[in-house]
Write a structure and sequence with these properties.
- It is a single chain.
- The protein is mainly beta and 113 residues long.
- It has no helices and 6 strands.
- It has strands spanning 14-18, 31-33, 37-43, 50-53, 83-87, 103-108.
- The strands form 2 sheets. Strands 1-6-3 form a 3-stranded antiparallel beta sheet, with no helix packed on it. It has a 3-stranded antiparallel beta sheet with strand order 2-5-4, with no helix packed on it.
- The protein is globular and about 35 Å long.
- The two termini are 29 Å apart.
- Mean pLDDT is 79; it is low at 1-10.
Length: 113
């Protein structure tokens, strides 16, 4: 048999979150995680992709299409040192063709990583 390119993990090692559907002209967001490994986010909007940015802290770029930088990042409540999933778009819009935008987060919890 052919080996799988997708690793199989026990269900307890998987984490996921499905955000509410976006039904607005200006959905602004960012995703930061702590205590997990290998986070990834996907979107139903082909123009919205995410870049993994480790060790989240002050001065880091918040969106690919803007020059805004993070400020006052201090402590776990501000995700300091976490993994930020930087969106490619600052403002996400539901279009007339696709009334809603779907954003989902998936990650694994690996104790030895």
């Amino acid at each position: 048999s052919t080996p799988s390119l997708t690793p199989s993990l026990p269900p307890s090692d998987l984490a996921s979150y499905l955000f509410p559907l976006v039904d607005t002209d200006q959905f602004v967001h960012g995703i930061c995680t702590t205590g997990i490994s290998f986070p990834a986010a996907i979107s139903s909007d082909p123009n919205l992709v995410y870049t993994e940015v480790p060790n989240w802290t002050n001065g880091m770029k918040m969106w690919d299409d803007r020059d805004y930088k993070a400020e006052n990042i201090q402590g776990s409540e501000m995700c300091e040192g976490g993994i930020y999933l930087r969106p490619s778009l600052h403002k996400v819009s539901a279009t007339s063709c696709s009334r809603f935008v779907l954003v989902a987060l998936m990650a694994t919890h690996c104790k030895n990583v």
